Amino acid sequence: MFVHTQMMKSSVQYITKSRWRLFRGPLSACLKITDPCRMPPSIKAASTLAVRMQPEGAPPMRSLPQATPGAVEPVVQIPYQELRDLTPSAVEKLHKAFVGERAYGAVAITGIPNYAELKHDAFRAGVDLALLDDEGRKRSAAVNNTYPGWSGTPGSETHPLQNSFLFNVKEELGGQMDPFFGKNIFPSEDYRKTWVKFVDVMYANALQVLRGCDKVLDTEIQQWQAQRSLERLGDDGPALAGRFICYDSGFTREDKLLELRDGVSPLNSNASSIAELPQSSHGHEEPSEMSVKTVGHAGDGLASMRTHATPVKTAGHAGDGLASMRTHATPVKTAGHAGDGLASMRTHATPVKTAGHAGDGLASMRTHATPVKTAGHAGDGLASMRTHATPVKTAGHAGDGLASMRTHATPVKTAGHAGDGMATMQTPSAPVKTSSSGYNPLELSSSLAGSLSSQGSDDAVPVSQPETDYWLPWHVDSNFVTILHKEMYASESTGEFISEPPGSGLMFMNEVGETTMLDCSDPNTMLLQMGAFAQIYTGGKLKACRHAVLNPVKPGVARFNYCNFWYVPWDTLCTAPEGMEATAVNQGWNAMMDESYLNITMKQSFTAFRQFMVSPEARVQFSDSQRFKELSAILPIVRKQGDAGAPTMPNIQVDLLTDVRCPFSFISQMNLQNAIQNLGLQDNVVVRYHPVFLNPNVPKEGESLDDYLWREFGYTKEYAHSEDYPLRRYGREAGVEMNPHRRVVNTFDAFCLIEAAQEEGVQHELVQTLSRWYFEEAKDISDVAVLRAAALHVGLDAERALQRSSELQGTVQERYEEFSAMLGEVPHFLLREQASGNGLELGGLRSVEAWEQVLQQVMERGQFMGMTIDGPHGQKVRVDRANPFTPVSHALPAQHGWTPTAWPYQEEDFSRMDERPDDLMYSEPRLAEHLDLSSLQTLTETYEAIFQACPDGFSVLDLCSSWNSHYPNMDRASKVAVHGLNAVELEMNEVATERHIQDLNLDQKLPWADNSFDVATLALSIQYLTKPREVFAELQRVLKPGGMAVVAFSHRSFIEKAVRLWASEPDDGEGHAHVVCRYFQHGPENGWEKIKTMDVSPRHGDPVWIVTAVKPM
């Protein structure tokens, strides 16, 4: 499997007398926990729940898992000489290693000549690079973690594929670079030679194992080698990913799979529970169909890491990049929510309506009993085996101190939120009377609401780190085969090798659940494991290896290993032999794969994996909850007019889902406005409002607030009117005097007017006016006279606005129904940086300081967008919407300057399914758009950024154009020539100053003189060119020296007209980007420079990929 863990920061727990908070530093991460005895009673109960690490009476730490006792077979070992000669004994041992329910899917080859020496030298070079050679890491830096080179920063990186060195073994042994995988880059020639000596021996022995397995399969499957061959498949593969990995001792994970096998209830049942599991045929507990869904390629491209029972066990790993391993069934073993500093105010009995990320830096929003609709962890790049129906006993995040108001549709069954310190507006089913103890569910803890993270006291007392179990949890590698060894260990500070810690290393499991560890003292040993692809390819005859890696080591010890992940030819389908589909995929409680592995190519699998792992979302601190994605999809970003250039500060859109009579919402809004002022973002933040009514059935006459508070919460009038009433205190701090004489009113009509005000651009002003009048002056904002006055106050034509508001009643009702199905509390905020679409979704009341940190986080997420490329005539162009982390944006940089020496395509590559003349297809005008509006807007903004770099009076050619060039305002251009196949379409093109009809597949000669244009564009038609080299040569001719060509493409085509080369490429993005680069590199030879690949796809919409090039000056 091409997924590895990371080098994590060491973790230490601290007991302190103040607040709890997760700290991260270069070498350690500390969890500070409040002493519950020192806390106010209003939050004491919740905090006690938060810091409880295990049930009372449980042992302080768990022992490491042990191999299954009794008559358990060890991992099969074959002496090198036997394997080389493929003796009958060797073939018999391979059969035992890989065939049958008790096979572990792995074999150890012992006694390989000079293997230990070669391994030592290679590992020594790798450890020195990882821990001691800063300059070497810079020289060999990978463009990203799934491309060759060094990735990661030891001690500070927070990505699962970091702190490692990757290279394509096939490129070194066979001399051929695979453009899709990327070109190898090494810190030095000596480093390269050291590793090549080692991998040469590994490769030869692995091929011999595959030859032997082919012999085994000859006895198992009729005419096996006449149809298939493992040896051929492995030897023909274009990529063999050799990754040297550095893990530090702080990276630990808990896995409860063996407890499920043994019928043991998991620890820490305070936080979660496991669904009842029926018995399997083997007598082991097997998850029911609705409780555990094992996930394969569907979610991540290369599924491997089981996640339903593998939470992060030690503190400090919130940013580990493998936080998808958290689950409902097994909690994180530290207090709080991975140290996120944010949480929700959900009660113990309220299900959350949408799925989301655990460990995303915000509260997890997964449902208690609703199946997750997509495979994997919201596309996290790691296999998910989450339970679909396992309830969470404590619904979310106790003791977070962030207020919210519960909507009418969400009853609260408990009397408060375990002393959460803030109010949740409860239904009549749960009245709470004030007690003599002084407990008040409205009491806000200043330490929790005051900031996202607060410094604790300095008088902390260290407590030893809890014992941990795994470096890697139980999983199946999903590539073809994997080669590895016994790992080596070294001091994290000096890099000196140390002996293997007792109890560490690889652990194996077979189909029936027996477990064992590799018991081999021979240092000249290599291990080969079958992956899921090999198991499926053999119809399940050869078993994939279920394995885990144990971690008993103490802080300061790093684990190192080198693995070869073999990939078969990219276009190979993962299919079983005919009639063996049913046995190809594992079943049962320890399946670790499912049918989603089937019928996809190796390239599709790897592409899906890479697309996630190169993105910022793969880093947990930048991952999004599912609800963020859902809300973002239905609440599009509305960019300010004139935003095409790079703003001095990032623009932020805030979508607030709330009821205008929610006091927590208004106070939180005021604090947000103050935070915006403090950060100087007054001109960069826009707030939009959306209806989620607390109770849409409030009668027209309303109700006295005094009566409401007494009935719902048991608050007396005297208390609610007193100066000590918490809401009055919070209001004064925010600059609001909360009037206790206001009534509970129906706000539906008010929101209809707010919706009308949005159309006139004064929604925010109207909301502020209505809120002030309601909360401070106790005006009835359901009264039409008050609404008319408010409309006049913000400059609207009152009668017209009221008329429009009545017309919008259906729209408001529909929006309320849509949002209320997703949310159970208000207020709820969706904050996004406008250019990138990145941001956060969160709820509740926050202080000014907390909002400042939230806004800074949103701006930080926005920094992960935007690229600067070479533009026309030596100018630089900043494209704000470009994502620099996607495979398309990495496609060319990952080549490290390599280009094919000759045109790599044949004539048949440009054949088409429909070879009829193109003018037949375009004889009638096609006045349609080929992408959705958000994608076309992104394309227009990209053109605008490029055109802004052109001089006044510039000239543009739009090749293969139509009725819409998707250009911005072209007043500065002197000439816009459009070229296409249909005269009617071109005549309708409003920006054109001249038009030309031509079929480029018949005649490639363009009618313009040399050096005529500053910019040439070709959008969404590159896939139809049958003579691309000739067309690109002409394009280069008509551009001025320094002129720029821009080719845009997406995932849509008239497939019958697309050339075979384009239509047969499974990777619409990176694969096609390579094709366009070849067109530039050979059309004509040396005719273009400064070629760039760029992904400008909107967050929601069709992808938009661009390749640009400049004609030499």
Automatic annotation (TrEMBL):
Domain DSBA-like thioredoxin: 653-816
Pfam families, per database record: DSBA (PF01323), Methyltransf_11 (PF08241)
Methyltransferase type domain sequence ranges: 1001-1046
Coiled-coil segments on the chain, per record: none
Record field: compositional bias (Polar residues): 424-439
Region (Disordered): 415-441
Single GO MF descriptor: methyltransferase activity
InterPro entries: DSBA-like_thioredoxin_dom (IPR001853), IPNS-like_sf (IPR027443), Methyltransf_11 (IPR013216), SAM-dependent_MTases_sf (IPR029063), Thioredoxin-like_sf (IPR036249)
Biological process per Gene Ontology, one example term: methylation
Protein name: Methyltransferase type 11 domain-containing protein
Organism: Durusdinium trenchii
